[in-house]
Specification:
The chain is α/β, with parallel strands linked by helices and 409 residues long. It has two domains: 3-178 and 367-405, Rossmann fold (3-Layer(aba) Sandwich); 182-364, Rossmann fold (3-Layer(aba) Sandwich), CATH 3.40.50.2000. The protein is 45% helix and 17% strand. It has 16 helices and 16 strands. It has helices spanning 18-27, 64-79, 96-108, 130-145, 155-164, 181-191, 196-199, 220-229, 247-256, 272-278, 294-300, 311-316, 331-343, 345-364, 368-390, 397-405, and strands spanning 3-7, 33-39, 48-51, 54-60, 80-81, 84-85, 89-93, 113-117, 149-152, 172-174, 205-210, 236-241, 263-266, 281-284, 304-307, 324-325. The chain has an eight-stranded mixed beta sheet, sandwiched between helices. Strands 13-12-11-14-15-16 form a six-stranded parallel beta sheet, with helices on both faces. A two-stranded antiparallel sheet has the order 5-6. Strand 15, helix 12 (311-316) and strand 16 (324-325) form a beta-alpha-beta unit.
Length: 409
Amino acid sequence: MDALFITTDLDTLREGSAAEARAKDYAALGKHIMVFVLHTTARSALPHRALPTLWIVPIHGPFLLWTIYKAVRAARRELYFQKKFQVEIIDSTDAFAAICAGWLIARKFKSPLHITTLRSAITVARPQSGLMQMLSAPFLHFLLTRADSVSTDSEKVREALLRTSADWLDRVFLLPRSVDIGLMKKETTETGSIDLHTKYPQFKIVLLTVAPLTAEYNPDLAIYTIAGVVQSYTFAGLVMVGEGPMKDSLKALARKLGVESHVVFEPWTGDLPSYYKSAHIFLVTASRQEYGNTIAEAASASCAILSTNVGLAAAFLKHEESAYICDVKDPLCFVKTATMLITHSPVRDRVRLNGMLAFEGFLAQEKPAERADTRVKAWEAARKHFVSAHKKTPLAPKAARAKDEHPSK
C-alpha cells in the first residue's frame, strides 16, 4: 500500500538516526512511501531518495501554521497527478503540526487518515511548553477522534478512544515498543559529552528524572524522594530534565521541604545518553505510563533503575534483580530503596548490569514482522472505515469540478 507519512521529528533527516531507521522500516510496507518532515528551523536538507521505495521531503516554514499550509501544497505538488491522489493512506505522528497537516490533506484529497501515536518517537523531541500543551491538547484530541484508525504503544490512548465510542474496538491497534539498542549506543558515543559529576560537583550521588513536568508523570514524588534521601546523605542531588507547567510548583515544594539546593532543573536536551551514563539512579515516578522509552534508554546505558510498575519496567525488569519497583502510592519505598542503593554500591552495580542484560534479552525477543503486520492491519482498517463512512457521501459538484480542472503532471 502506498503511503504518505507526516512527522515533525527532525532526526528523520539525519543519516543513521533511529528516526531514519523507522522511516526505512515503513518503506517495506508499500511500493512507494513518502515522508514529509515538518519543521520551523533553518533549512538544512533537500528532498532525497533514502531507498528505492522511500522519499524523504523536508517541509520548512518560518512558523507552525505556515509549515502546515506548505505541507498541504507539497502534497498537491508531489502526489496529485492524473486527476488522482497517488497514495492510499496518510499516516501522521501525534505531533500537533503533523496531525493538523495530515487531517487537512486527508480532507482535501478524500483519503483515509491513520494516526500513529508512538511515545518512543517523541522522546528525542522537545516537549511542548505548558501553554502550548494547554492550547493544543483539546484540538489534538478532536483530530485524533477524527482519524479512520489509530495505532499506539500506549494502553492509555487505547482506553481513551474506546471510552469515546465502541466503534474504536476494531480501529485502534496496540503496537509493541521498538527500540534499537545499537542506535542508542551509537548516539551515546556521538553525544556523550555531559558528565553530571563534573557539572554538579556538590552531588556525590546523582538521581535523575527525564519527563515533562506535568501531573501525568507525578514529578512531586521525585522531590519527596530526594527530601527523604538527604536526611541520611547530604551529598545526594536530583537532576530533573524536562519542561512543563509544574516547574514553579516543584521549585516551591523543594523550598518547602528544605531541599532547594539539592534539586536542579534542566531544559530538554538531545544529549540524554550521557545523562543516563553519568547518573547513579534513574528515577521513574509516573503513575500510569513512562515517558517515551526512557526506561529502556537508562537500562541500555547501564543506569540503576528505581521505578513505578509502568511501561517497559513492567515488561522486562524484575524487582530486586534488574531494577527496584515501588508502588506509586508508597513514597517511603522510594526513599528507603534509593537510600539502600546509595549505601550498598555492589547492589547498585549488580542491578544496573542486570538491567542492561535484561533489556538486551527483551530486544532479542522482539518480532519486527508482527509489528509491521499490525501496522498493515491498521491501514486496512482505516481504508475500510473511510469507505464505509463516505459511501453515502458523494463528492460535491464544486469539488468534482475543481478536480477536473486540475492539470495532470
